[in-house]
Amino acid sequence: MKLKDLAAELGLSQTTVSRALNGFPEVNEATRQRVSEAARRLGYRANVAARRLATGRSGAIGVALPLQRSMHFGPHVSEFLSGISERLAQNEIDLVVAPIEEDDELPVYRRLAASKRVDAVVISAPTPKDARIAELTELGLPFLLHGRTEVGIPHAFLDIDNEGAFRRATSHLIDLGHRHIAMINGPEEQTFAIHRDRGYKSAMLARGLVPDPQLIGGGRFTDENGFRLAQAFLERRPRPTAFLAGSMMTALGVFRALRLAGLELGRDVSMIAHDDVFPYLNADNMVPSMSTTRSSIRAAGARIADLILLMQEGKDPGSIHEVWPVELVLRESTAPAPV
Question: How many of the other CB atoms lie within 10 Å of CB of 42?
């Protein structure tokens, strides 16, 4: 089926149908939906090259992937990129991943902006004073931030409520009678880790408890880092009776350290881990099942793709501010503090 045939089927001009399919803001939403539904029903697929000529867009979204930083997050990166790419593929938009050796992403963005290879970029793992916000704004390269920063320049972002999640998890452990609660966080310079630390400490202080800095650690979300930190914490006296783990990967390391110490999770020690909902690491299937703060990173990637598409349709990036609540799911790994 050609564009002419689709337009005739709908009783609309070819120009209107083309603009509806390409997301032009002057086409109202009812017409856009009607055209999109007819295109799906009749099997119409736009010529990608022609669409790019018509819209002036490259048909691609970019992600810079600092290789050193990606080692901090392991499978989180693949889940996040999968969520973005699956959603973009529905609109025949490509995801361009630009791997870089160093953590300095700015030269990559300058090249992408100059070459016009991408229509927008996704940036993640922000710090409070993130220099990328000002650079991308000056370059005029549209972007959406996964996470938050304190930079005052208007920009689009999507984040989860890390502070609220860890405040609630810590409060629950305190309600169970735990007073010595260890936390294994992410890289300390990144905003999400700062927010989690703030939630943990505020919950402790609100109940008259002083957080012990010797029971707080961070770094890569790996089994090995979780194991090493948990071992060190368990050697302290009094030892922690509960753990907050920044990821399910970290939790595996904590679990290994507990077994080595002859302690039983859910009886001698409790744990709540943050779960990004990996399909191959199900908290329900662990023994004992793991209590978690749960929010799908793949779903976040898909939503970010949706928001970028809205930006391309004319939505003001400065009005796109989403902060998702995080669900606390209680299972067998949490129990009253041992007497």
Answer: 12
Distances (CA, A) of 76 to 44, 49, 107: 36, 33, 25
What is the C-alpha to C-alpha distance for residues 55 and 30, in angstroms, rounded to an integer? 21
Q: Give the distance, in angstroms, between the CA of residue 175 and the centroid of all CA atoms in the same chain.
A: 29
pTM given for the model: 0.84
Which pLDDT tens digit goes with each residue over 247-287?
999 999 999 999 999 999 999 999 999 999 998 889 999 99
The span from the CA of 70 to the CA of 127, in Å, is 15
In terms of DSSP bridges, do strands 60-66 and 94-100 run parallel, antiparallel, or are they unpaired? parallel
CA separation for the pair 192, 166 (Å, rounded):
11
Q: 283, 252 in Cβ contact below 8 A?
A: no
Instruction: Write out the two tokens for 4.
Output: 């002419």
Cis peptide before 238 (omega within 30 of 0): yes
Kindly give the residue spans of alpha helices, DSSP state H, lying in 261-324: 297-312
**β strands within 133-198, DSSP E:** 143-146, 156-160, 181-184
From the centroid of its chain, how far is CA 266?
A: 29
Q: How crowded is residue 298: how many other Cβ atoms within 10 Å of its Cβ? A: 21
pLDDT bin (cut points 50, 70, 90) of residue 56 is low
Q: Considering only residues 330 and 89, tell me which one the structure prediction assigns the higher pLDDT.
A: 330
